[in-house]
Amino acid sequence: MLSAEIIVIALGTVAGQPFATQVTVLVGIALIMTVGVYGFVAGIVKMDDLGLYLLKKGHGAAKTIGKGLLLTAPKLVKVLTVIGTIAMFLVGGVVAALLNALVGIVGGGLALLAVTLFGKLAGVYKGSRP
Question: Residue ranges of the chain with pLDDT lower than 70?
Fold first, then answer.
C-alpha cells in the first residue's frame, strides 16, 4: 500500500515532464524501493545466520557481536511484528473504525446507565405514592 502511495506521489511530481522522464523516475524509485525494502528484510532474516557464523568461526569481538546478533534477532522480529501490524491498521483506516466502535460502546454504556438509574429512581418514587 505504501509503495503505491509513493509511486502516486512521484507521478504527481513529474506529471508535467516528458514521458521518458516519468518512466525513468518511476523505474528508479521502484528499483530503490525494491532493493531497499527487500535488502532490509533480507538483512533481518539473515541476521541470526550471521550471528551464528560469527559465534562459531569468530574470535574475540566477532564472537561477542555474533552472540549479540543471535540474542537480538528474535526480539527485533517481535518488535517489527507489532510495528507492522499497527502500520497496516493505520494505512487501512482500521484505527478510525476502532475509535468509532469505542465511542459507540462508551456512549451506549452511558445511555444504559442513565436508563437504569432513571428506572430505579422512578421505582422509588412509585413506591412512595399513596
Answer: 1-2, 124-130
Q: Per residue, what are the HEC states of 7-40? A: HHHHHHHCCCCCHHHHHHHHHHHHHHHHHHHHHH
Question: What does the pLDDT read at residue 54?
Answer: 95
- How far is C-alpha 23 from the chain's CA centre? 30
Please tell me the distance from the alpha carbon of residue 102 to that of residue 33, in angstroms, as a whole number: 37
- Whether the CB-CB separation of 59 and 91 falls below 8 Å is answered with no
3-state secondary structure of 58: coil
Report the alpha-carbon distance of residue 99 to residue 106 in Å, rounded: 11
CA angle 77, 85, 72 (to 5 degrees): 15
